[in-house]
């Protein structure tokens, strides 16, 4: 009885938290997508109405009505999730450090380290290590990033050997990857390392150190106008 009561109280506490999170996500999405509520409602009505109409045609309105309700709820959730994701990327795009926030949600099997290299113009490189190898994700001015990427690759070459190194420059220009496609691009990369090799690469890179070890940075996108504190290593 005690265990059941504890479980029930835990579920009751979790549900308001989930509902609050959904409400906050909806408010955030509506700021950049004012029609999100109408679109979601429209999707639900269309799916439910279509299934209910089929139910009347075949003589089973109750069964198809229940199925329509469930499918309508699922369709609404999918549409809401996609529009919320699009709104989130839209708000992050163009902000320094936005790529770091994306890398934190790449998925299991990846170890991410934000701001491993940065220059005085706030062009920045983040690092992710996974089965495809090392991925350097750069954001800032493309021309300045080329030299910054080259310097970082040279620095890593002294520590990690026979580990593939990929680089991604975030942006909408030629040869660049839009922020919303960074995660997909990384997940499509061929897996060439074993889990043990990934661990070894991470240990060596961690021993090498990085910019973050000497400079505390807030999580998520860096605020505009922020400056590097004295003592941080610049490139």
Account of the protein in words:
By secondary structure, the protein is an alpha+beta fold. 54% of the residues lie in helices and 11% in strands. It contains seven helices and four strands; from the N terminus they run ααααβββαβαα. It has helices at residues 2-32, 36-58, 61-92, 98-103, 142-157, 182-187, 195-208, and strands at 111-118, 124-130, 133-139, 165-169. It has a four-stranded mixed β-sheet. Strand 1 (111-118) and strand 2 form a beta hairpin. Helix 1 (2-32) packs across helix 3 (61-92) and helix 2 packs antiparallel against helix 3. The protein is elongated. The protein starts with a helix and ends in a 27-residue tail after the last helix. 23% of the residues are buried. Mean pLDDT is 79; it is low at 1-7, 211-220 and 222-235.
What characteristics describe this protein?
alpha+beta; disordered C terminus; 4-stranded mixed beta sheet; 4 strands; disordered N terminus; 235 residues
